[in-house]
Amino acid sequence: MVDESAAAAVRGIRDVFDQVVAGGFRAEKVEGASDEEIDAMAAAQGVRMVPAALREVLRILGKQGGAWLPGAGFGISMGAQDKEYALWCVEEAEERGIAHGMRDPQGLLAVLDAAASSYVVVDGADLAEADPPMWVLVESGEVTRRHESVTAWFALTGEGVMDTRRMLAERRAHGCRETPGEASYRW
Question: The pTM is what?
Fold first, then answer.
C-alpha cells in the first residue's frame, strides 16, 4: 500500500513538471535517475531515506538537470563532500552564534550545490516526511528554511525555466540570433 501523502507528493511534482513541459520545455532535455542511483547518492551522504517528493524530482532530472538547473551541482552527483561543505555553512552559523532552527543538521541530505557557496538541503529531522521543507545554507553562516516543501521549491525552479523561455522568446521576436539555450524549448 502506498502512503497517501507520498502519492500526493509524487503527483504534485509530476504536475509541476507536466505544466512546464506544456509551456514549451522539452522533457527530453533532462534525464532522470533510477531508484538505485538515488539510493546510492543518499548512502554516500550517510542518509537512509529520500523523501517521496524529492525522489520524484530525481527520477525526472536527477542525472541531468539541463536548463532546469543550469550550472548547479545537483542530483545523483551530490555526495559526501557536498554534504560536508553544506555542514560547514551550519558550523559557520553556530560559530557566529546565529540561531538557525535546523533540528538534525548532521543528518541532512544535500540536494543542490550552487557555486560551492550555497546549498539546498533537507534537514535530517524531516527526511521521513513525504514533502519536507527545503533549507538554503550559505557559506557566510546564513541558514534559512526557504521553501515550505520540495514541491514549492520545484515549482519555483520551474517558474525560472519558463521565465527563461519568455526571455528567449522576446529576443527571438526582436530578431536576435538563436542561442544554444533555445534548444531546451519547443517553439
Answer: 0.96
